[in-house]
Amino acid sequence: MPLHQKEQEIAMLRSELEMLMNERLNLLRIAGAAAAFVAELDAEALPETSLQAADLLSEFLNQASEETIRDALEVVKVH
Questions:
Q1: DSSP letter at 41?
Q2: What's the CA gap between 68 and 74, in Å, rounded?
Q3: pLDDT for 12-64, tens place per residue?
Q4: Which has fewest Cβ within 10 Å: 3, 12, 16, 35?
């Protein structure tokens, strides 16, 4: 494989990795904000439709690894 082609592939991979890291950061922000939101909810004060949505959100957050949630809360500065 010519050197020029390898350099192009490396540049493409770097670009893709940067895009994935930015997407991960955005997803961590979303997860952190969602976790903080769920933690502050008063389930007894929510209407049934909102309670169902909060339960679904909580279920998905509980499926995330502890490390991911810790990272997400750190990104949004919630402890």
A1: -
A2: 10
A3: 999 999 999 999 999 999 999 999 998 898 888 889 889 899 999 999 999 99
A4: 3
CA–CA gap between residue 5 and residue 11 (Å, rounded):
10
Q: Per-residue confidence at 79, pLDDT binned at 50, 70, 90?
A: low
**DSSP codes, 8-64:** HHHHHHHHHHHHHHHHHHHHHHHHHHHHHHHHH--GGGS-HHHHHHHHHHHHHHHHS
Residue 46's region, left for phi above 0, alpha for psi from -120 to 50, else beta, is beta
> CB within 8 A of 36, min separation 6: which ones?
73, 76, 78
Please answer whether residues 27 and 71 qualify as being in contact, where contact means their C-beta atoms are separated by less than 8 angstroms.
no
74 to each of 12, 25, 29, 42, 68, how far by Cα in Å? 30, 11, 9, 23, 10
Token pair in block for residue 18: 């940067």
